[in-house]
Amino acid sequence: MATGNDPDKSGSVGDTPGAGRGLTSEELELRRRNLESKLVSKGAVRKAGSEDKGTETASGVAQAMKLSSEFIAGVLVGAGLGWLADRFLGTSPWGLIILLLLGFCAGTLNILRSAGHVAENQGLDFSKKSDHDKPE
Fold it and tell me: What pLDDT sits at residue 22?
């Protein structure tokens, strides 16, 4: 096992040329540069100071704003409709309470749909016949 500045002399490493002998720091540096250039050419390495981090942060903030506005809109629409129902139907405070809770549920469902945790409702397709509808 290599420790400190001494090269690793634990044995051969497959069919690597010169395997089993100690490598100098120049040879190791050359191998590191070759590996790094191969990784960069394949796109496996990103530079540390790249602009992707800023774009990633902005995208996360945009997603958070979208989700929070969808939730707040659901709650506010439910509360507004409940207040209107109470005002015109005289059911105070039950319309506000019930529709506010429904708005909360709708806002939560919108968040889950936007985040991809709940599938969109595709509806039923009656045009396809299933196996049990076929006559025997």
Answer: 78
